[in-house]
Design a protein that fits this description.
Layout: H1 3-35, H2 38-59, H3 62-68, H4 74-105, H5 111-118, H6 121-137, H7 141-164, H8 170-190, H9 201-235, H10 238-272, H11 277-294, H12 296-313, H13 322-328, H14 332-347, H15 351-373, H16 376-402, H17 407-435, H18 438-441, H19 443-464, H20 471-482, H21 484-524, E1 529-531, E2 539-540, E3 545-549, E4 558-562, E5 570-573, E6 579-581, E7 610-616, E8 619-625, E9 633-639, E10 643-649, E11 652-663, E12 666-677, E13 681-687, E14 694-700, E15 707-709, E16 720-723, E17 728-734, E18 743-748, H22 760-765, E19 769-773, E20 779-781, H23 783-786, E21 794-801, E22 810-816, E23 828-832, E24 838-840, H24 842-845, E25 854-860, E26 869-874, E27 877-884, E28 887-895, H25 909-912, E29 917-920, E30 929-932, E31 939-944, E32 947-951, E33 964-968, E34 977-981, E35 984-988, E36 994-996, E37 1007-1015, E38 1024-1031, E39 1051-1058, E40 1065-1072, E41 1084-1088, E42 1093-1097, E43 1113-1118, E44 1122-1129, E45 1135-1142, E46 1145-1150
Parallel strand pairs: 7-15, 40-46
Antiparallel strand pairs: 1-39, 2-39, 3-4, 4-5, 5-6, 7-8, 8-13, 9-12, 9-14, 10-13, 11-12, 14-16, 17-18, 18-19, 19-20, 21-22, 22-23, 23-24, 25-26, 26-27, 27-28, 29-30, 30-31, 31-32, 33-34, 34-35, 35-36, 37-38, 38-39, 40-43, 41-42, 41-44, 44-45
Helix pairs in contact: 1-7, 1-10, 2-4, 2-5, 2-9, 2-10, 3-6, 3-9, 4-5, 4-6, 4-9, 6-8, 7-8, 7-21, 9-10, 9-15, 10-11, 10-13, 10-14, 11-14, 11-17, 12-13, 12-17, 12-19, 13-16, 14-16, 15-16, 17-19
Length: about 1150
């Protein structure tokens, strides 16, 4: 076979092998991306940077030396194998010893286990290298390709199976070892080589001189490629690196499938004709021409479809990789120059010059990377692209100096490809212009349209355009097409036979693997969760809070929200996975006179003649419909707010505004808007706010029953009526009046903190709500009768507690000072008297603290003395208010002034929900500890006998910054784990350190705040997660210019069912207290098993930020099937014990009378 045929045959099989392997990797990669998270891939990439670097040095470059050498025999292969094995053994031992320090440097203890296991590949590489080099030297690329496909199928299937089995990042590590081992076995049977030890220093020296140059060149090339990832891994973390690596690997896919296979036979061919520079020059430019024709169209298409491709194929959690992929696709053009130039320099033995070039390129890459990192993933991607442009120019200059050529030869080589791809770009531009909206609405359809249009355009252009340089390629394609049917039939039969053999072999291997996984799972599995697409909530408008409560006492946990003036939900669980919204049925609409008149983004259907009045978002609409049926109408709307008319079609308007009073936040304005019409008309306006009464007086030919208010289209009783929203904030649930039904206290805002500046009739109507459930299932408002006064309080958090241990529920309200009117705004502590009245005793107990703004707090017994204490986050740090005989005395836990936005000064989700305190005895020493999550920096406070000490969370494996956190024993092993947003779950180990489980994490750039609730939504004993996420307004990729805007107050809600499989047992406890505190709020429960003791206080499961209602306690028992003893210290100080309680159930413990 002549050289040309050998090259074409080699290229053909290498393309088949590479395409098959890459497609397999791509398919398995999609499945793995759905099963794993970016951080898993980031961990493996970080390890591969170092193992790849050391492996390259350990190989000594002798593989390439064997391929290039003119004469070699079995002794050469055995000698090289022996040397590489001798190097691999100490290298592996080195990785084993350095693993603990590697884990410390990258601040992830999992590296200590991953690195030694991954390094086992070093012991396999000498075998693989010897056999692969023999096949390449003999140009037996068919065998090499088939073996590569088998290896990739096995590796991919193994990794997917492991990932599905819950082994997380280990699925990527162990699958590579399985594939490598099987690949070596097959390689040994495909070659006549029989490897054995051969210590021959002469052969080592002979091949070592060229190999050393290869290593030197590859050293700088490897460092250049991987330095970017190394910097990202250290400075930005595994998740950031995982996202970038996904974009990087995808944009290289066309290159690896088509360009990389060409390099191996071309290098071998150029090595044979290295003395014939004219022939070398022809081959060099011919390769560039063909790569332009066959590879560049993939990168043109990738540039257009990057976003929908990531969205459709990999899912939303990988969307941050879309923009980098689009940027990196531009590098495709430069790869077409880089790879042939590198092959030419290697074949001409100009490795010293290339080594110098790689070192210069390395410096350029590192510098641009550091600059780019400031702009996140986008900046790093542009930095990488800049380095590829620089690399292409530098290597081409070296090639230019090696062969007799001119720059116009390069332009001549790329011109055919430029012609073809220019037409492709224009067609895709036109298609995108007419279908671009589909990117966000139906991304799969957009992707399909672009692929079909692009593919058809390019194929037609290739076959129909008269390009002399590609005529031979066109003829070859047509010949293949003409004989394609026969080839397809033969190929089909071969595929069937091969597939049968492959499936049988894989079945045997996978059966063995499955057995191995069963043994490994208990050690490596860190849990699994399934997102519930049929969840009760997916988004919440004008979000304020979300929480969990057993509202109707059926032991099924229900869901509620608070939404300022917008429509809330109260979703009762039916025990079968369904939920029913009973807000209106229970009479909890913001306007009792007009149910469903709350603000929403749903407009009523105009199906009857009349006048429709309703809110749509924060805008207010008045619409007359089919007025010709009953004449004309006139009306006035009065409100103490300015009104902006947004649109008027058909109304005659007269607006009169009179300023009444100047306040810090604006002017109180009396507005009277008169409107009249005798036809169908449309009026849309925006009042200054939504919390003030809108008073209507309607006259004319219309009757009250022809007026429809709100989405519920409820008619007023008279032609004069008022509509008021309640701006609900915190909801706190408890049985206040001892009738075994939960009652609700809801506080509200105070008109931007300016309520005291408004007239008396407004101040009288703006109040909080204490709602008592009556026998009919509705609620009675006893706020005023109970003694609760608004006092201008801009209400935020609220809590029921038994402050003075008298067995009666007291009420704490956190007030903010918005700075809009003079005066103090102390917190409120209402102590309940025996006759059911509430008296504000904040000043007497020193709870008021009018000079302090409290961003988050926790009420619990810090020092186990039976008194409830208060821990707070304030602008100047964290403080303990220790209860000393009914008076709170301040102690400093950690003084740390808040930088930037201060508490109470912002209504943006980014800061309103920052600083949440979550409480648990995480170290099982009998004292409750605190974790404070914050974007300014997380804090861990460990309590010892009532005194807190600060521990850096990073030192125990927890994240440095988060914007939400909750203690939770998600796997029921009896240890408190921590879930943070965005990082995900951190599993506690027995040494009181934490390991990132890499589940339930979220893109940190995409969201800026979160509220998460852990509860057993299906009563299976495992805690599930419902998390509300606030999108980051600043997150908008430049390519998403036509993305639909999302209101910043609209939060996404995601629900995840706990599918973690283990044999651990559990116990859930519901306490029933005596009259006055039926929910036993503040009771302390100690659960004692054969090997552990756990402590919780009622209310510690609370996940809502401002509200309260989740009183169930959750205990993981590990392998214990029962609890030896439960000790309950009730809120009134009485202690009670329960013995020998069986696990795996919800138990109800009643306080003895």
């Amino acid at each position: 076979m002549d050289l040309g045929k050998s090259i074409r045959s080699g290229v053909k099989w290498l393309i088949i092998g590479n395409t098959g392997s890459r497609l397999m990797e791509f398919a398995f990669g999609i499945m793995l991306a759905r099963l794993l998270v970016p951080a898993d891939f980031g961990l493996i990439v970080t390890i591969q940077i170092f193992t790849g670097f050391v492996g390259m040095l350990a190989s000594g470059g002798m593989g390439q030396a064997l391929i290039r050498a003119k004469q070699v025999d079995a002794r050469d292969f055995n000698a090289v194998f022996t040397l590489q094995l001798a190097i691999a053994i100490p290298v592996y031992l080195g990785f084993y010893l350095v693993a603990p320090y590697f884990a410390i440097f990258f601040e992830d203890p999992l590296y200590e286990q991953l690195l030694p296991v991954s390094a086992l590949m070093f012991l396999m590489r000498p075998v693989e290298s010897a056999y692969s080099c023999w096949l390449a030297r003999e140009m037996q690329f068919k065998k090499k390709s088939v073996i590569g496909i088998i290896k990739n199928v096995l590796t991919g299937a193994t990794s997917v199976l492991m990932a599905w089995y819950g082994m997380g990042v280990w699925s990527l590590t162990l699958a590579g070892l399985v594939g490598g081992l099987v690949g070596n076995i097959i390689l040994s049977q495909a070659t006549p080589l029989r490897l054995k030890l051969n210590i021959d220093t002469t052969i080592w020296r002979e091949h070592g001189s060229y190999g050393a140059k290869i290593v030197g060149n590859d050293f700088f090339s490897h460092i250049r490629r991987e330095s970017l990832k190394l910097i990202l891994s250290k400075l930005a973390g595994p998740a950031f690196l995982g996202l970038f690596n996904k974009a990087d690997s995808l944009h290289r896919l066309p290159y690896f499938m088509l360009a990389q296979p060409v390099a191996q036979p071309v290098f071998r061919a150029m090595s044979k004709i290295q003395d014939d520079l004219d022939q070398t020059k022809y081959m060099f430019y011919r390769v560039i021409t063909l790569l332009m024709a066959y590879i560049l169209p993939f990168y043109i298409g990738l540039w257009w479809v990057a976003e929908p491709f990531i969205n459709v194929v990999y899912g939303e959690k990988w969307m941050l990789a879309a923009e980098p992929l689009k940027i990196l696709s531009i590098a495709g053009f430069f790869y077409i120059i880089i790879r042939p130039s590198s092959v030419l320099l290697m074949a001409q033995n100009r490795l010293t010059q290339e080594m110098i070039a790689q070192s210069v390129i390395l410096v350029f890459t590192v510098v641009t990377c550091f600059f780019g990192l400031e702009w996140g993933l986008v900046g790093v991607s542009w930095a990488f692209l800049a380095s590829q442009v620089f690399t292409a120019f530098y290597l081409y200059i070296l090639a230019y100096q090696t062969i007799p050529t001119r720059v116009k030869d390069l332009f001549k080589a790329i011109t055919p490809g430029v012609k073809l791809n220019s037409l492709l770009f224009i067609v895709l531009f036109i298609v995108d212009h007419f279908s671009g909206d589909l990117i966000t609405s139906i991304p799969s359809l957009y992707l399909l349209i672009m692929v079909v249009a692009g593919g058809a355009t390019y194929l037609a252009s290739f076959l129909l355009m008269n390009i002399p340089e590609l005529q031979s390629e066109k003829k070859r394609i047509l010949d293949i097409s003409n004989s394609g049917l026969i080839i397809v039939k033969k190929l089909f039969m071969r595929i069937v036979i091969f597939s049968v053999k492959l499936v049988f072999s894989l079945a045997v291997l996978l059966a063995l693997l499955f057995s191995m996984l069963t043994l490994l799972k208990q050690y490596y599995a860190l849990g699994s969760f399934a997102e519930q697409q049929a969840a009760p909530l997916h988004e919440v408008h004008r979000f304020y809070d979300i929480g969990v409560v057993d509202a109707n006492g059926d032991d099924q946990l229900d869901i509620y929200t608070s939404n300022h003036h917008f429509r809330q939900v109260l979703l009762l669980a039916d025990g079968k996975g369904g939920y029913n919204d009973v807000l209106s049925k229970w009479g909890l609409d913001q306007s009792l006179a007009f149910p469903e008149a709350d603000l929403s983004f749903t407009a009523p259907v105009l199906d009857k003649p009349g006048l429709y009045i309703y809110w749509f978002g924060s805008q207010f609409l008045i619409r007359s419909h089919k007025m010709d049926n009953f004449g004309s109408l006139k009306g006035t709307l009065e409100v103490l707010d300015p009104i902006t008319i947004k649109k008027n079609d058909g109304f005659v308007l007269d607006k009169r505004e009179q300023p009444l009073k100047e306040l810090a936040h604006g002017t109180i304005t009396s507005t009277v808007l008169s409107f009249a019409t005798d036809k169908s008309a449309y009026l849309r306006m925006k009042p200054g706010g939504q919390g003030l009464p809108l008073t209507f007086k309607i006259t004319g030919d219309i009757k009250p029953e022809q007026i429809y208010v709100g989405l519920g289209k409820v008619s007023p009783q008279a032609l004069e009526f008022s509509l008021t929203m309640l701006d609900r904030h915190a909801l706190v649930w408890a049985d206040y009046n001892n009738d075994d039904k939960l009652d609700i206290f809801m506080n509200r805002g105070a008109l931007g903190g300016a309520l005291r500046g408004y007239p008396d009739f407004i101040r009288k109507d703006i109040k909080d709500e204490l709602l008592i459930r009556n026998e009919s299932g509705q609620f009675d408002d006893i706020t005023i009768a109970a003694g609760i006064e608004k006092k201008g309080c801009s209400g935020r958090h609220a809590r029921w507690l038994d402050f003075n241990h008298d067995g009666l529920l007291d009420l704490y309200i956190n007030c903010y000072d918005r700075g809009n009117v003079p005066g103090d705004f102390p917190k409120q502590l209402y102590i309940q008297t025996k006759d059911g009245k509430l008296q504000d005793m904040a000043a007497a107990t020193k709870v008021g603290m009018p000079e302090q703004q409290i961003g988050s707090f926790a009420w619990f017994d810090v020092d186990n003395d039976g008194d409830i204490d208060l821990v707070t986050l304030q602008n100047d740090g964290f403080f303990l208010y220790r209860n000393q005989q009914g008076v709170l005395e301040q102690e400093t836990i950690l003084r740390r002034a808040l930088s930037g936005v201060q508490i109470g000064s912002s209504t943006e989700g980014a800061w309103v929900y920052d600083g949440k305190l979550t409480v648990a005895d995480y170290d099982a020493d009998g004292d409750l500890d605190i974790f404070a999550s914050s974007k300014r920096g997380n804090l861990l406070f460990v309590s010892e006998k009532g005194n807190f000490s600060y521990i850096n969370p990073v030192s125990v494996g927890l994240p440095e910054k988060s914007f939400n956190a909750n203690w939770v024993d998600y796997d029921n092993d009896g240890l408190s784990d921590l879930h943070t947003v965005p990082q995900g779950l951190f599993k506690q180990n027995t040494d009181k350190h934490f390991q990132l489980a890499r589940i339930l994490n979220f893109p940190d750039e995409q969201y800026q705040a979160a509220v998460s609730n852990w509860f057993d939504m299906d009563n299976d004993g495992k805690l599930d997660l419902m998390v509300a996420l606030n999108k980051n307004d600043a997150y908008k990729p430049w390519w998403a210019f036509n993305e639909k805007a999302t209101l910043k107050t609209t939060w996404k809600v995601k629900t995840f069912r706990n599918t973690t499989g283990n044999a651990n047992h559990w116990l859930q406890i519901k306490l029933v207290g005596t009259t006055g505190n039926k929910q036993a709020i503040g009771a302390r429960v100690t659960v004692i098993t054969a090997d552990s003791q756990q402590i919780q206080e009622v209310g510690s499961s609370e996940g809502s930020f401002f509200s309260q209602g989740h009183y169930r306690l959750y205990f993981g028992l590990g392998k214990n099937q029962q609890v030896n003893r439960i000790k309950v210290q009730w809120p009134n100080g009485i202690e009670q014990e329960f013995e020998n309680i069986a696990g795996d159930k919800l138990v109800v413990l009643q306080q003895s009378k």
